[in-house]
Design a protein that fits this description.
This protein is mainly alpha-helical. 48% of the residues lie in helices and 10% in strands. It has twelve helices and nine strands. It has a three-stranded antiparallel sheet, with no helix packed on it. It has a two-stranded antiparallel ribbon with strand order 4-5. A hairpin with an 8-residue loop joins strand 1 and strand 2. Helix 7 packs antiparallel against helix 8. The relative contact order is 0.04.
Length: 467
């Protein structure tokens, strides 16, 4: 004891600077005597068993009251996060880990392996017993390859005086048991051949291998989800601690960008239930993430109007762990946004519509030229009939001539009515046909020339043409 005290292994009792072992217990106590136990943290000195501190393990916002202002529940603050690998089969607080599951297997494997090696060594190098009748020369009596030793005994005496030690070869049962334990350990540690990258065989389909690996990862997925849930609880505690103890403004160095960043305590004033780890407990391997991203990309290509194309492409690049995604795929709403390119299908349809529109305008112009020509011909016909009517009127001598003049006047009136309809149609269509100002002036000139044709019947009712 004195030696241990001198080496500092056992602290001296009278040393006031010696460290002391403290025990901390999280419990529920009714210190205010209201009949409801509140959560507290008690610190006790193990050696003297004295209570050093009692601290409340709750905050005021965690107290729930009913309509009568009576306390119905108090949510205690949890300072420790339990990471569970595999829950304890007996329901205890201490869960199982790989150390517990593989510890006994590793010890058994090591023991069997040592026994097999020792047995093989003893079988290969076994000696024996030498009788008194065997006369060897002094020195090393072991043999080397191609070596012969001289003895002073006859062969008969030598054969009778040497008794080999009976040693069995390594046990096949132990070797089979070793293989069984190794295979069982690989299954528990999820280190089977496909899981560690060993090819299952040349003729094994790829989809079969993927399904086998997916089935083998079911246990690991459950473990990963438990770790994910524990990590989420720990992040919530850190978030709450930052909201209470962080300075108003803290500067830190960003390792990714190499810049100085600032974080405010007000950034942690929200609800800690919204804090989630940047991980997906349902997808673990990189291949699974890439396959999921490609499936979403194919669906987006099939239904482009229902998906956000930028987010789809961004998730695919993120699943592929592409560095500097913003430089490759800039945010459409950011500073480096690429101008939106028109859809080729829209361009083609627009060109078709423009072509149809041009064809329509051309056909309309051709039709209007025909109408203009027909109007001019009709105008000439009217002038010719008016001239004939005036000549017949001047030469009229009897009732037969009056009938001819009346027929001409009816034909002239019918032609003018048709001419008015054609001119009205031209006036309506001249803006639709896309004519230039010169062509529009020609149409207006045609209409103006017709308007200058005055209807001035004389006493006999014949239409006169103005000079």
């Amino acid at each position: 004891i004195v030696t241990q005290e001198s080496q500092g292994l056992i602290p001296a009792l009278e040393d006031p600077a010696a460290p002391r072992e403290l025990l901390e217990q999280h419990c529920w106590l009714d210190l205010d005597g209201d009949g409801y136990e509140e959560p507290y943290t008690i610190t006790i000195d193990r050696e003297s068993r004295q209570v050093l501190r009692i601290v409340a393990r709750f905050v005021y916002s965690s107290i729930k009251k009913n309509s009568k202002k009576e306390i119905t529940s108090i949510k205690a603050i949890q300072y420790y996060t339990k990471y569970t690998f595999i829950p304890s089969p007996d329901g205890g607080i201490y869960d199982l880990g790989l150390g517990v599951l593989l510890g006994a297997l590793n010890e058994s494997i090591n023991t069997i392996l040592n026994q097999l090696v020792d047995s093989g060594t003893l079988s290969n190098t076994a000696g024996g017993f030498l009788g008194r009748g065997v006369k060897f020369r002094s020195g090393d009596n072991s043999f080397r390859p191609f070596e012969w030793k001289r003895v002073d005994s006859t062969g008969d005496d030598l054969r009778k005086g040497i008794v080999p030690l009976e040693v069995r070869e390594p046990s096949q049962v132990l070797f089979q048991l070793l293989s069984l334990l190794i295979n069982y350990g690989e299954r528990i540690g999820m280190a089977t051949d496909p899981q560690v990258g060993v090819s299952p065989g040349q003729n094994t389909p790829a989809e079969t291998s993927r399904n086998v690996i997916a089935e083998g990862q079911r246990v690991f997925n459950a473990i990963f989800k438990r770790i994910y849930r524990a990590l989420k609880e720990e992040f919530k505690k850190l978030y709450q601690l930052n909201s209470v103890y962080l300075e108003d403004s803290t500067t830190y160095f960003n390792l990714t960008s190499g810049e100085l960043k600032k974080v405010l305590r007000s950034d942690f004033a929200g609800d800690n239930n919204e804090v989630l780890p940047a991980a997906d407990p349902n997808m673990i391997t990189k291949e699974q993430k890439i396959i999921m991203a490609k499936v979403i990309q194919e669906s987006a290509m099939a239904s482009p109007g229902l998906y956000n194309k930028y987010e789809v492409e961004k998730r695919l690049l993120r699943a592929m762990e592409t560095p500097d995604i913003e430089a490759i795929l800039p945010d459409p709403k950011g500073e480096n946004a690429i101008p939106e390119q028109p859809d080729p299908l829209v361009i083609i349809e627009t060109m078709k519509i423009e072509q149809q529109k041009a064809e329509f305008q051309m056909n309309l112009q051709i039709k209007m030229f025909d109408l203009m020509q027909e109007t001019e011909l009709l105008r000439s016909e009217i002038l010719e009939k008016e001239t004939r009517a005036a000549l017949n009127l001047a030469q009229a001598e009897g009732a037969q001539d009056n009938l001819q003049i009346t027929a001409l006047q009816s034909a002239i009136a019918l032609a003018k009515t048709k001419q008015d309809g054609l001119i009205a149609t031209l006036k309506v269509l001249k803006d639709l046909a896309g004519f230039s100002k010169e062509k529009k002036g020609i149409i207006d000139g045609i209409a103006g020339g017709v308007d200058r044709m005055e209807k001035a019947p004389d006493d006999s009712g014949v239409v006169q043409v103005s000079k």
